Amino acid sequence: QYTAEPFVPESAGLADLRKAASGCRGCPLHRDATQTVFGAGNEHARVMLVGEQPGDQEDRQGRPFVGPAGKLLDRALAEAGIDPGEAYVTNAVKHFKFTRAEPRKRRIHKAPSLRETTACGPWLAAELALVEPELIVVLGATAGKALLGSSFRVTQVRGTVLEEEIHGRRERLVPTVHPSSVLRADDREAAYRGLVSDLTVAARALS
Ligand code: URA
Ligand code: SF4
């Protein structure tokens, strides 16, 4: 049974949490990745954005959403009326999972398994307990399953305000697609408009 549980300090601040997460060995993903990519941003943020896992750039730089998907997300947030600098951003899984087609070739993102997502859950729970956001923006299926369970379907609930009990706290959540899926879409412009539209629902729920 993989779990981050023994690595998560009790009653710690965000800085202590981040430091502890840098040494997490709760699942095998720490072995091949460069470093733990913990959440970042405003500790008193009203909105928390939860993605899947760090990508190649995030793994190198040690910060979430600094690569192409992050750039697109920042643009979409600003357009929807949410200041990206006011948000707290994190991921369901804190280490980059990848494969290589050939040795020393480009690293290709691989989706985390349910076991790995579950193992990493205590970090996300600790972040939620500390930041206590008014609203959680759920970016895609992995984040949705991590927070709301394996029956989560992003197509069914995107752009709506959900109210759910998570780790003993009543949370409001707005799910939407993952920004990486916009970059992969056949009709990128339509996919981007869809993302902005969902984030506008989140912006309205905050005001
Ligand atoms: N995709 C994610 O889900 N998170 C990141 O931090 C970067 C890309
Ligand atoms: Fe720990 Fe999460 Fe990294 Fe696994 S992915 S080693 S649980 S921080």
TrEMBL record:
Query: Which keywords has UniProt assigned to this entry?
Result: 4Fe-4S, DNA damage, DNA repair, Hydrolase, Iron, Iron-sulfur, Metal-binding
Under Gene3D superfamilies, the record lists: Uracil-DNA glycosylase-like domain (3.40.470.10)
Q: Which SMART domains match?
A: UDG (SM00986), UreE_C (SM00987)
Q: Where is the Uracil-DNA glycosylase-like domain?
A: 38-200
Give the matching InterPro entries: UDG_Type-4/5, Ura-DNA_glyco_family4, Uracil-DNA_glycosylase-like, Uracil-DNA_glycosylase-like_sf
Please give one Gene Ontology molecular function term for this protein.
deaminated base DNA N-glycosylase activity
**Record keyword Amino-acid biosynthesis present:** no
By its UniProt entry, which CDD domains does this protein fall under?
UDG-F4_TTUDGA_SPO1dp_like
GO BP annotations of the record are: DNA repair
Tell me the SUPFAM superfamilies matching this sequence.
Answer: Uracil-DNA glycosylase-like
* A Pfam family: UDG
Q: Is Heme tagged as a keyword?
A: no
Family designation: Belongs to the uracil-DNA glycosylase (UDG) superfamily. Type 4 (UDGa) family.
**Protein name in UniProt:** Type-4 uracil-DNA glycosylase
